[in-house]
Design a protein that fits this description.
It is a single chain. The chain has 381 residues and is of the alpha/beta class. The chain folds into 2 domains: 2-107, STAS domain (Transcription Regulator spoIIAA); 121-378, no CATH class. The protein is 70% helix and 10% strand. The longest helix has 40 residues, at 206-245.
Length: 381
């Protein structure tokens, strides 16, 4: 029997033989560009064979790369599985070297299993489980943190007050410019936008009341906390995360030190002092922004504006603002430290923890503020 197959890509296969032996004579280019056609032709020829021996003659092969060698080794494996005696003829040293680059055992490896894409319901379920697990970890850490804060209050000498002062400067003093600027601009915007509506009714004086209540009761604590979360909460997570990567936290444990008490407590105490003070600072600059709009754009005197601001605010408004700020401070510092202690791996883990610390802190600030609003409403304030 004699058969000839060819390819426009530049190879040909001559088949000759009888029932005892069949010879596949390859010529031309056995390369990557014609690999699919070559495999298909080889499979077709093997399916028609009825001989007991197969010989592959490579005398006419002008070019052989690793893809062509792969096709030849697959042919050898297929012939062996069919029980055929197989051998190469006219195998040059160059071709033998290329064939030697491929391990025949790898040809029998199972195909890679592509990851199954979960259904939308499965994705929702997995996201819910991750959220609940993360919530449990956060609550557990905050509980441990509160216990260590209580221990520090009972034993103040165990607190690293030098570190508290350092973080107080970083969190509070270094944040004064940005907090003051943002609050001033926010006061300007709210006063200007509200005046556009109140001016129609001749109620310009109520711009002072609106801005004072909005800044002191809501916007002051929230905006300050969000800024601190972005500046300091992320820094806490990155600092502790880097220590986790460098195994410095493990060294503290080996030395018998409590990592939460040693690393987290100074950061939390500093934030607990800085955020309420920054909130008062933000309230002042927000009201100052409204004062600028009232004097320059609404024909109000500074005395009238300040008097209306004092009349609209009560002591509890300021007290509730400071209470919110203190709770937000614990959440910001606690989440930042908790995310830092969770870091595993290298720089990528530190980056992920930093991002997660900011997002989680802002989320908890909004949720907690909503809870405060409901509680104060039902208490009649």
């Amino acid at each position: 029997m004699t058969t000839a197959l060819g390819s426009p890509e530049g190879y040909s296969i001559q088949v000759a033989g009888d029932r005892d032996q069949v010879v596949f004579s390859f010529s031309g280019r056995l390369a990557l560009e014609n690999l699919d056609e070559l495999r298909a032709d080889i499979q077709g020829l093997l399916g028609e064979m009825a001989a007991r021996r197969l010989q592959v003659d490579l005398k006419g092969v002008q070019y052989l790369d690793s893809a062509g060698a792969l096709a030849l080794l697959e042919l050898q494996r297929e012939a062996s599985e069919r029980g055929l005696n197989f051998d190469f003829a006219n195998l040059t040293p160059e071709a033998q070297g290329i064939l030697g680059l491929i391990d025949p055992r790898d040809l029998a490896a199972p195909p890679l299993i592509t990851e199954r894409i979960p259904s939308p319901m499965e994705q929702v379920g997995e996201a819910t489980l991750r959220f609940l697990q993360d919530l449990v970890q956060v609550i557990t850490f905050l509980g441990e943190l509160l216990l260590n804060l209580g221990h520090s209050l009972v034993h103040p000498r165990t607190v690293r007050w030098g570190e508290v002062a350092f973080y107080l400067k970083r969190t509070g003093v270094d944040g004064l410019p940005i907090v003051g600027l943002i609050s001033l601009l926010l006061g300007l915007i709210i006063a200007f936008m509200s005046s556009l509506q109140l001016k129609q009714f001749g109620a310009n004086i109520y711009v002072a009341s609106l801005l004072a209540i909005a800044m002191v009761k809501e916007l002051g604590p929230i905006m300050t906390s969000i800024l601190v979360a972005g500046r300091s909460g992320s820094a806490f997570a990155a600092e502790i995360g880097t220590m986790m990567v460098n195994e410095e936290v493990d060294a503290l444990v080996t030395m018998g030190l409590n990592p939460v008490r040693f690393l987290a407590v100074p950061k939390v105490l500093a934030t607990l002092v800085a955020v309420p003070l920054l909130t008062l600072y933000a309230d002042f600059f927000g009201i100052l922004g409204g004062l600028i709009v009232g004097v320059l754009g609404l024909d109000l005197t500074a005395f009238t504006y300040i008097s209306e601001t004092q009349r609209s605010l009560a002591l509890f408004d300021l007290t509730s603002s400071l209470i919110k700020a203190a709770v937000f401070a614990i959440l910001i510092a606690g989440i930042g430290c908790q995310r830092g202690f969770q870091v595993r791996g290298g720089a990528q883990g530190v980056g992920a923890a930093t991002t997660s610390a900011v997002v989680a802190a802002i989320f908890l600030i909004i949720v907690t503020d909503s809870a405060f609003a409901l509680v104060f409403h039902y208490l009649g304030y």
